Amino acid sequence: MLITTSLKELVSAKEAIDELGHTKPELFQLFINVIQLTRQLQFNYQYLGCLIMDENPDKCRPNICNTYAFKVFQQEIDKLKADNKIIELQHLLAVNKQIGYANVCKLVIGENPRYLVGPQVV
């Protein structure tokens, strides 16, 4: 699927992300930890977003599903989803779904919105 993002959409998402970070710092830190783990394992951010949102991740599932690293990744996702404030993170992702879960994750870990403008395949 091809998505196109504007600077206005990305800046708006960044503001919502910053707000979540200020109002729910523990949930936000868990989200950052899972994003960093996703990056280190070289999994797709879209896959992470689908897991958090309880969507079907089949199109972006990594090929390694039976490894220790994958089990640790799944445990961290479960820990994040067990947080009683997960609904607020799911709301953030749902509201900003049009820019793609990958862009949301990149904004969370500090990427400048200007570098994310334009079309992307998700």
Structure write-up:
It is a single chain. This protein is mainly alpha-helical and 122 residues long. 60% of the residues lie in helices and 7% in strands. The chain has six helices and two strands, in the order βααααααβ. It has helices at residues 7-23, 25-40, 45-52, 68-81, 86-95, 101-108; strands spanning 2-5, 118-121. It has a two-stranded antiparallel sheet with strand order 1-2. Helix 1 crosses helix 2 and helix 1 (7-23) packs across helix 6. The mean pLDDT is 92.
How big is the Rg?
14 Å
Head-to-tail CA distance between termini: 5 Å
Question: DSSP helix count?
Answer: 6
The number of strands is: 2
> In which order are the strands of the major sheet placed?
1-2
Largest sheet: 2 strands, antiparallel
The portion of residues forming beta strands comes to 5-15%
Q: Unreliable segments (pLDDT under 50, ≥5 consecutive)? A: none
What is the 3D shape?
globular
Order of helices and strands: EHHHHHHE
User: How confident is the prediction overall: mean pLDDT?
Assistant: 92
- Percent of residues in helices comes to 55-70%
Alpha-beta content class: mainly alpha
